[in-house]
Structure to design on (926 residues):
C-alpha cells in the first residue's frame, strides 16, 4: 500500500513539481533544488499520504497551462477531476482562465474555445463510458460522488459552518435542503469576484492566486467538507511560495496545524513537530521570510512592519493549542474542546488569508498575456535574504 | 548566503527525530542494561555484574556517562533501570534512549562548528551562496549528516556521534596549535571507547615529534630542541585523565577484571558479518579452496569438521586449507601496516596534513588487519578522511570510492524490510550530493561514461554496487537463496566492498609515500 503511494508520487507528483519549478524559475540549480525541496517537504502532504495522485494530475494541468498547451492542460485537469471529484475546488479558476485566454486571443477565439470544450467532453466521456449505459447507473455514480445526506460537516472542520456552530446551531435551525441552498449561494457569491477578475485579465500569477482563492472558498463555505480538503488549497499556495514566501509559508503552517487532531488520531505527533520544523528550516534557507515590500498606493501601509510579529504570535498560538490539547484533559461535558478551538483558530486565519489573496489578486498590476512569468519573477522578493529577526527565529524553532 | 551550520543541524535533528520509531538492534538493549547497572549498583560491582549477557565492556568514562544519563532516565521510566536478563523496551525507554543519542550529538555539531569557523580557510570564491561550492556547507554535510553515522546511531543505535565529536574536537584543537587541549580531548575519548586506541600511535608520534621537539617541520630532527617541560605537561594531562577515569578501579584493585572485559580475545577473527577487510578475502579464498579441493578430490570430506561453515556466530572459526589466524598475527600485521606512515611522520612531518594521514592510516590498518573488526569501524576512517577532501583533488576521488563502499558495507546492519527504502534513499542522496559537490568544488566536469573524479575502472567498480544490491535485496529472496545460503549475500557484500577498500588503502599509501620521496628528491636537487 505504502509503496503504491510512493511510486505514484514518484511518477506523477514529484516530476510535475520539479518540472514546474524548473521552467518557472529561471535561476541557478541550487535554488531550484531548494525550492522543490521545500515544497516537497510541506508537512501536510507528507503526513496525509494518500491523494497525491489527483494533485499530481492537477499539477500537470497547471504546468501545461503555464507552457501554453491549453488543450493538454484541460485534459490533464479533467482526468484529475475524474479521479477525484474534490478537484472541483480547482475547476472554477481553470474554467475562467481558459475562457479569459480564449477571449483575449485575437484570432479564432471561438475555434480555440470549441477545441478545449470538445477535449474536456471527450475526456469525461471516456472516463465515464462504463457507466453511461443505463440511466440508473449515472444517477448512482453521482449519488455516490456527492453524498449530500451526510450533513453539513462531519468532524471538526476549520470552515465557517463548523466555527459558526459554536454560536448558532445551523443544523438545527434549517432543513438539509435549505442548508444546501445556503452553502451553494454563499460559495458561488464568494467565487465570483476572483473568477471574473481572472476572465478579464488572465495572467498566470492571477491564475495561481485564483486557484488558491477558489479552493479556499470551497473549503470554507461548501457543504460536507473534510479536514484534508485544505490540502487542495495548499497546493496552489505551495506554488505561490516563490512569489509570496511570507504569506504562503504562514498559510502552509496553519493548514498543517488545522489537521492536528487527525495527526493525534494517527499517532503522528512526533512526526508533525519534526516535519514542521524541517519545513521551516528548508523554507528559511530558501526564501526571504519577510513580508513583500508595500508599494506606495497600498492599503493599510502601517500593518506591514507588524506582520512578522503577527506571524510569531499566530504560530505561538498554534503551539500553545497543540501542547494544551496534548496535556490538558478537557472537561467531561466538552470532550472535543480542543478540536473545536483548533478549528476556529485556523478558520479565522483562513478567512483572513482568503481576503488577502483576493486583495492581492485584484491589486497585482499585471500586463496581459505572456509576460506573466516575468511578472512573477519580479514579484519574487530579493534573493539575497536578510534573516528574519532573531527573536522571531527562536520562537518558531520551539515548534 | 548558503545555509549556515545551524540550519543544517536543525534539519538533520528533525530527521533524527523522525527515525525514532525505526528498527533498533540489540545494542539498544546493551545500553539499556548499562543504564541499569550503573544506576542500581555501587561502583565496585559495575564490571562484575553479569545477569544479562550484555556486560559493561566500555571504559569507565562511558560508564559514568551512562550513570549521568540514568539520573535523568528515572524520570522517564524507572522500570528501565532494573537489571534483568530479558530485553526491556517501553515507549518511554525508546524515547529516552533515542533522545539521549540525539542530544549527545550536539557535541559533534559543536565540533563541526569549531572546525568550520576556526580552521577552514575561506577562499574568495564567487559562488559561496551555492550549496555545491560552499566549503563550510560541504564539510558540515560530510560530518554531521554523515550517512554512516545516521544509520549506525539513529537506526541501529549507538553513541558514535558524540565520540566522533570528541575526536573532531581534539583534531581541531591540534590544528589550531593547542596541542595540550587536543591531547586532553583525545585522552577523554580513549576513556569513553577504547577502540580509538587504534589511532593513538598517530597521536603519540605526532605530538612527540611536533610538540615535544620545538624544531619546525624540517626534515632533520634536532635532538637538542627536545623540551622536557612540554613532554612532562603532555604526560601529566594524559595521565591525569586516565587517573580520574581508572583511579577508583585501581583503588578497588579491579584492573585485571576491567581489562578482560575491555579486550575479549575469546571472540573470533571476524565478526558475525565479516567486516569488508583483508580477512574477508582470506576467508573466501579458504572457502573456495575447500570447494575446489572437494570437487577435485584433493580433500577428504571427513577431514573437514562441520563447524567450519561461516555461520553467524561470534565464536572462533577454523580455516581449513589456509593456516588459522591467531590474534598476535593480526596485531603484527596491523603494526607493520602502520609503521611506514609513523616513520614518515617522524622523519618528515608536513604539519597537520601528515597528522590526519596518520590517523586515517592507523584506522585503516587496524580495520583491514585487526582482530574481530566491526563493520562500523569504517567510520573511523571515513570521518577523519573527510577533513582532507577539500584540500586535494586526488584525495577527493579516493574519498568518494571509500565513502560509497564503506557506507554500502553498512547496509547489512539494517536488514528489516521497513528500513530498506530509508537506507537506500538516504545512501543515494548522500552519495549523489558528495559526487556533485566535490566534483564542482574541484572544478571537474563529469563525462557521461565515467563518474567525476574517478577513472573508468573505478567508476565501473562503484557502478557494480548496483547489481550487488539488486542481488541482495531482490534476487536472493526470489531464488530462495536467503533461506538456503543465508550467508551468501553478506559474503558477497563484504568481499566486494573489501576489494574497494583495500584498493583505496594501497592507493592512498602509495601517494603519501611517493609524495615523501618526491619532496626528498626536490630537496636533494636544491642542495
Amino acid at each position: 500500500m505504502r509503496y503504491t503511494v510512493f511510486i505514484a508520487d514518484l511518477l506523477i507528483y514529484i516530476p510535475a513539481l520539479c518540472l514546474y519549478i524548473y521552467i518557472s524559475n529561471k535561476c541557478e540549480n541550487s535554488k531550484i533544488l531548494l525550492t522543490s525541496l521545500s515544497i516537497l517537504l510541506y508537512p501536510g502532504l507528507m503526513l496525509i499520504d494518500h491523494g497525491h495522485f489527483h494533485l499530481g494530475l492537477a499539477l500537470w494541468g497547471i504546468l501545461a497551462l503555464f507552457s501554453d498547451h491549453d488543450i493538454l492542460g484541460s485534459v490533464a485537469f479533467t482526468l484529475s477531476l475524474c479521479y477525484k471529484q474534490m478537484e472541483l475546488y480547482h475547476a472554477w479558476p481553470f474554467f475562467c482562465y481558459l475562457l479569459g485566454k480564449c477571449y483575449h486571443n485575437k484570432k479564432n477565439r471561438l475555434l480555440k474555445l470549441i477545441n478545449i470544450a470538445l477535449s474536456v467532453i471527450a475526456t469525461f466521456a471516456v472516463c465515464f463510458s462504463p457507466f453511461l449505459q443505463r440511466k440508473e447507473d449515472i444517477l448512482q455514480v453521482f449519488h455516490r460522488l456527492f453524498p449530500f445526506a451526510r450533513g453539513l460537516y462531519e468532524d471538526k472542520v476549520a470552515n465557517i459552518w463548523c466555527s459558526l456552530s459554536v454560536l448558532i446551531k445551523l443544523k438545527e435551525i434549517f432543513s438539509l435542503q435549505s442548508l444546501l441552498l445556503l452553502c451553494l449561494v454563499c460559495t458561488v457569491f464568494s467565487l465570483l469576484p476572483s473568477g471574473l477578475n481572472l476572465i478579464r485579465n488572465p495572467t498566470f500569477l492571477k491564475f495561481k492566486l485564483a486557484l488558491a482563492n477558489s479552493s479556499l472558498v470551497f473549503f470554507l463555505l461548501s457543504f460536507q467538507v473534510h479536514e484534508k480538503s485544505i490540502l487542495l488549497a495548499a497546493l496552489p499556495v505551495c506554488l505561490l511560495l516563490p512569489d509570496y514566501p511570507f504569506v504562503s509559508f504562514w498559510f502552509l503552517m496553519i493548514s498543517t496545524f488545522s489537521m492536528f487532531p487527525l495527526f493525534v488520531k494517527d499517532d503522528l505527533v512526533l512526526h508533525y513537530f519534526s516535519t514542521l520544523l524541517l519545513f521551516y528550516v528548508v523554507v528559511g534557507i530558501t526564501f526571504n521570510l519577510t513580508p513583500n515590500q508595500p508599494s506606495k498606493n497600498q492599503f493599510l501601509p502601517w500593518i506591514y512592519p507588524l506582520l512578522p510579529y503577527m506571524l510569531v504570535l499566530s504560530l505561538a498560538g498554534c503551539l500553545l493549542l497543540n501542547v494544551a490539547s496534548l496535556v490538558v484533559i478537557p472537561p467531561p461535558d466538552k470532550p472535543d474542546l480542543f478540536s473545536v478551538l483548533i478549528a476556529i483558530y485556523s478558520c479565522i486565519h483562513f478567512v483572513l488569508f482568503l481576503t488577502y489573496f483576493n486583495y492581492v489578486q485584484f491589486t497585482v498590476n499585471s500586463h496581459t498575456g505572456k509576460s506573466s512569468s516575468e511578472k512573477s519573477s519580479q514579484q519574487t522578493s530579493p534573493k539575497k535574504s536578510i534573516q528574519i529577526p532573531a527573536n522571531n527565529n527562536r520562537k518558531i524553532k520551539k515548534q | 548566503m548558503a545555509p549556515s551550520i545551524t540550519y543544517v543541524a536543525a534539519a538533520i535533528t528533525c530527521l533524527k527525530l523522525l527515525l525514532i520509531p525505526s528498527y533498533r538492534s540489540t545494542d539498544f538493549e546493551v545500553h539499556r542494561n548499562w543504564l541499569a547497572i550503573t544506576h542500581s549498583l555501587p561502583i565496585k560491582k559495575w564490571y562484575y555484574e553479569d545477569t544479562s549477557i550484555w556486560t559493561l565492556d566500555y571504559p569507565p568514562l562511558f560508564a559514568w556517562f551512562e550513570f549521568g544519563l540514568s539520573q535523568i532516565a528515572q524520570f522517564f521510566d524507572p522500570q528501565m533501570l532494573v537489571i534483568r536478563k530479558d530485553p526491556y523496551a517501553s515507549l518511554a525507554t525508546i524515547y529516552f534512549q533515542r533522545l539521549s543519542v540525539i542530544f549527545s550529538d550536539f557535541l559533534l555539531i559543536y565540533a563541526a562548528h569549531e572546525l568550520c569557523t576556526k580552521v577552514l580557510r575561506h577562499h574568495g570564491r564567487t559562488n559561496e551562496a551555492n550549496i555545491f561550492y560552499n566549503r563550510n556547507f560541504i564539510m558540515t554535510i560530510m560530518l554531521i549528516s554523515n550517512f554512516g553515522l545516521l544509520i549506525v546511531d539513529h537506526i541501529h543505535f549507538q553513541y558514535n556521534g558524540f565520540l566522533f565529536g570528541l575526536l573532531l574536537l581534539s583534531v581541531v584543537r591540534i590544528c589550531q596549535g593547542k596541542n595540550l587541549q587536543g591531547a586532553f580531548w583525545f585522552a577523554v575519548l580513549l576513556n569513553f571507547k577504547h577502540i580509538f586506541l587504534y589511532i593513538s600511535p598517530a597521536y603519540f608520534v605526532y605530538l612527540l615529534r611536533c610538540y615535544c621537539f620545538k624544531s619546525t617541520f624540517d626534515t632533520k630532527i634536532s635532538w637538542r630542541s627536545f623540551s622536557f617541560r612540554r613532554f612532562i605537561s603532555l604526560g601529566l594531562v594524559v595521565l591525569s585523565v586516565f587517573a580520574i577515569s581508572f583511579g577508583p578501579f585501581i583503588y578497588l584493585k579491579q584492573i585485571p577484571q576491567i581489562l578482560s572485559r575491555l579486550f575479549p580475545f575469546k571472540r573470533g577473527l571476524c565478526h558475525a558479518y565479516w567486516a569488508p577487510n583483508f580477512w574477508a578475502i582470506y576467508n573466501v579464498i579458504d572457502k573456495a579452496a575447500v570447494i575446489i579441493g572437494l570437487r577435485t578430490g584433493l580433500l577428504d570430506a571427513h577431514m573437514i569438521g562441520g563447524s567450519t561453515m561461516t555461520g553467524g556466530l561470534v565464536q572462533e572459526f577454523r580455516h581449513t586449507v589456509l593456516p588459522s589466524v591467531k590474534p598476535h598475527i593480526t596485531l603484527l600485521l596491523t603494526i607493520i601496516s602502520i609503521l611506514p606512515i609513523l616513520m614518515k611522520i617522524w622523519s618528515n612531518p608536513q604539519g597537520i596534513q601528515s597528522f590526519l594521514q596518520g590517523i586515517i592510516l592507523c584506522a585503516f590498518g587496524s580495520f583491514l588487519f585487526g582482530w574481530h573488526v566491526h563493520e562500523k569501524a569504517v567510520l573511523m576512517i571515513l570521518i577523519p578522511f573527510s577533513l582532507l577532501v577539500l584540500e586535494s583533488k586526488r584525495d577527493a576521488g579516493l574519498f568518494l570510492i571509500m565513502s560509497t563502499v564503506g557506507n554500502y558495507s553498512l547496509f547489512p546492519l539494517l536488514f528489516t524490510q521497513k528500513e530498506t527504502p530509508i537506507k537506500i534513499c538516504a545512501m543515494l542522496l548522500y552519495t549523489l550530493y558528495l559526487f556533485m559537490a566535490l566534483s564542482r568544488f574541484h572544478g571537474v566536469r563529469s563525462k557521461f561514461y565515467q563518474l567525476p573524479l574517478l577513472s573508468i575502472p573505478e567508476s565501473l567498480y562503484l557502478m557494480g554496487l548496483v547489481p550487488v544490491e539488486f542481488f541482495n535485496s531482490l534476487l536472493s529472496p526470489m531464488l530462495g537463496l536467503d533461506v538456503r545460503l543465508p550467508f551468501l549475500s553478506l559474503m558477497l557484500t563484504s568481499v566486494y566492498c573489501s576489494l574497494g577498500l583495500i584498493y583505496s588503502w594501497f592507493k592512498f599509501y602509495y601517494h603519501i609515500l611517493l609524495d615523501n620521496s618526491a619532496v626528498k628528491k626536490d630537496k636533494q636537487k636544491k642542495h
Summary: Confidence is low (pLDDT under 50) at residues 367-399 of chain A. The longest helix of chain A spans residues 337-363. Chain A has one domain: 2-398.
